[in-house]
Amino acid sequence: MSDPSEQPSESMPGQDNGLKPLSNADDLSLGNPSNSELSRIMSRAGIALANGFPLDEDDDDEEEVEGDYVAVDQEEDSNEFPYWFRRPPTHHRTKLDELHPFVQLLSTSNVEDCIAVENAFPEAERCSRDKFIYRLTRCPELSLGLFTLPLYGDQPKPRATLVGHIIATRTSEPTVTDRSMRLPSEWKNERWSFEGDEAVGHEEGGRTIAIHSLAVLPEHQGKQIGSTLMKSYIHRIREALIADRIAIIAHDHLVPFYESFGFENHGPSKCQFGGGGWVDLVLELGNESS
Fold this sequence. Notes:
GO molecular function: aralkylamine N-acetyltransferase activity
GO cellular component, one term: cytoplasm
Helix content: 10-25%
Domain N-acetyltransferase: 194-288
Pfam family, one: Acetyltransf_10
Oligomer: single chain
Largest sheet: 7 strands, mixed
Number of helices: 7
Number of strands: 13
Protein name: N-acetyltransferase domain-containing protein
């Protein structure tokens, strides 16, 4: 299943989630340094200026950059330097930036959060609480969540909010199947679960990562969260060398979205979960073009 809000026309953030280094070199307007307050401060600190910016007097004594500021010697007026050396973003802030997002693996402690996110789907297509517990117990390393943690200033640190997730298991089949989506009845007592001669649920030796849910909270849809999650997830799985492919099922209108990541359309799926009507999509991880 997949988040219905995102379309392939969205720009895709990079593997760093779209957060760019900060710089204000193009935004400073200092005027004539000889007549400015900055010139007075620099002069008292023993820093020469050229065209309004510090001039290195010794190539072997480079300034060190740490965090959002340039390191300077502590002089009488050094407390004024952070004002001049702040480095605000040069790129246009997006709705995703405003969430101050980060991604991390999920665990059973996130079950209630996942249930809230899953409500973005029609009821028949939602993952159940028991399935979340099962999947986040057996294979939490195949999950990924995108959280928001706004800046809190002097207030107590708030709890991070899960705004989107990817939940998956392993299967020995090349596509997502009904049996790979099932909840084994005795999974708490059995390491491997079978119905007849076929494995059901998570197969630890499977070389296909079967994504069962890519979902985003309704109030945060349209902010490139699904795109960010998918791109990060593909990168993590590819770099870990733990599978041959990633598979997902989606409805027709989302096929172009997944194709933009390199997934190939394998036609109508035999999976009848949620009433059927799905399309099989597969990304072969040996294909570096994605």
